[in-house]
Amino acid sequence: MLQAPGPLPSSAAELILTANTETRIVLITIAVFSFASWFLIGWKWWQMRRLGGQATRFFEELERSPRLNDAYRAAMKLPPSPYNRLFREGITFYSELRPGALTEADTARHTLSESQLEALKMVLGKEVASERDHVSHYITWLATIGSVSPLLGLLGTVLGVMRSFIGISTGGSSNMAAVAPGVAEALVTTVAGLAAAIPAVMAYNYFASRISRLEGELEGFGNELIGWMAREGLI
């Protein structure tokens, strides 16, 4: 005599609670990815907001300083940031090429040769790339989570559908009431995968654009620094 089937799940929460081992493993993995994604989103959002404040203070100091030496001293008093690190790198390299040039009134004999000017540009470009790589650290994990989570959800769905059809074949029942719970349980993993992936992809695109803008600002300041040196007769 056949046993009466138990109560059918009526919500997503009940589907998760009654899910089989494979589905639970997939859901737990997706949950870990989602938690890591939101942690990275919060951390990078705070980091980008802090960089925005640092940029504002840095460029305000430059506008208030008419001469390069004054701007450098004011910038070095600010908290460490990509902007004053780039400034320091450029000034330090120039001071190594032309010791005393920034402190002497007569700068005519301290101008750089063409090869030295190219070396200065390369040093500034290297620092820009280093700051960009530092800020973009772990950003690629958001792209990885955004691409892997839907695949994990699809894997859970496929496994769940396979289990449902195996149950139908062994139980000999093919009515909708017997098939629907297993298929619904399988689809939960797809929903979970998409829910984890969508914020990660959106955040990755946003942070990638912010990092690109930061790189442009640093490159622009590097060019401005060289132009400032040219105006004061240092190159």
Please sum up the structure shown.
The chain is mainly alpha-helical and 235 residues long. It is 79% helix and 0% strand.
Write structural notes for this entry.
- The protein is an all-alpha fold.
- The chain has 7 helices and no strands.
- α2 (21-64) runs antiparallel to α3 and α6 (139-171) runs antiparallel to α7 (176-231).
- The protein is rod-shaped, with a radius of gyration of 30 Å.
- Mean pLDDT is 83; it is low at 1-6.
Helices and strands in order, then pairings?
Blueprint: H1 12-17, H2 21-64, H3 68-76, H4 82-97, H5 114-135, H6 139-171, H7 176-231
Helix pairs in contact: 2-3, 2-6, 2-7, 4-5, 4-7, 5-7, 6-7
Labels describing this entry:
235 residues; mainly alpha; 7 helices; 79% helix; disordered N terminus
The helix content, as a percent range, equals: over 70%
- The helix/strand order is HHHHHHH
Average predicted confidence as pLDDT: 83
- How far is it from the N-terminal to the C-terminal residue, by CA? 97 Å
What's the overall geometry?
rod-shaped
Q: How many beta-strand elements?
A: 0
Largest sheet: none
Pick out the low-confidence regions: 1-6
**What gyration radius follows from the Cα positions, in whole Å?**
30 Å
Number of helices: 7
Q: Would you tell me the structural class of the helices and strands?
A: mainly alpha
Percent of residues in beta strands: under 5%
